[in-house]
Design brief:
By secondary structure, the protein is mostly helical. Helix content is about 70%, strand content about 0%.
Length: about 230
Amino acid sequence: MAGANKCLKYSMFAFNFLFWLCGCVILGVSIYLRVSKDAQQKLNLSGSGIMSGIDVMIAVGSIIMVLGFFGCCGAIKESRCLLILFFIGLLLILVLQITAGVLGVVYKPKIEAAVNESLFQLLPLNEQTPDFIQSLKTIEKENKCCGIFNGIQDWGTVSSESCQCKTASDPTTCGGNGYYKETCKTVFVDYFQNHLLIIIGIAFGLAVVELFGLGFSMTLYCQIGKK
């Protein structure tokens, strides 16, 4: 008996290899956003519900890698068992990704309030760890901002040199006291919003690819059954 269509068979293998690579990427990005020292220092949101979407994507990335391996083996060996396991697993992953995307959309308007609550616990800034203080001073210099909520007052009794304007005559960035007018709160909010958009984009973008995977696997499954 003739086997399954070779074009479909190797297309399925190529798709699953790319699918496996996608799993590696999404797992790596999600883990970085969840545990990186830079993200923790900037946001201090490890206990926030906003991070639940990233937690879901970590699980999704891990399972995608396993499913991609199953799909490759199922296509090459023409195993109906592996293909149906791949189909069921991919369908469950699709549901999880949609859930993660919805969580991201739901929590997006609440980001600023959650960040404000977490950052408020850091005041006064001069009582934080040396690593955090150094990171914040770097942010102040690069973004021409000062403090988090109340400018130089957030530093307590210590004056931060990174808040000082080099060109005090510039009214767009410098206040009357010689320090930057803008606070760094917007920098933290924008940082997390931009990374959250990456998570949402990956979740929905990969969902479209997975729909093709479901079609490929079921078509190959049916062809093998007709051998």
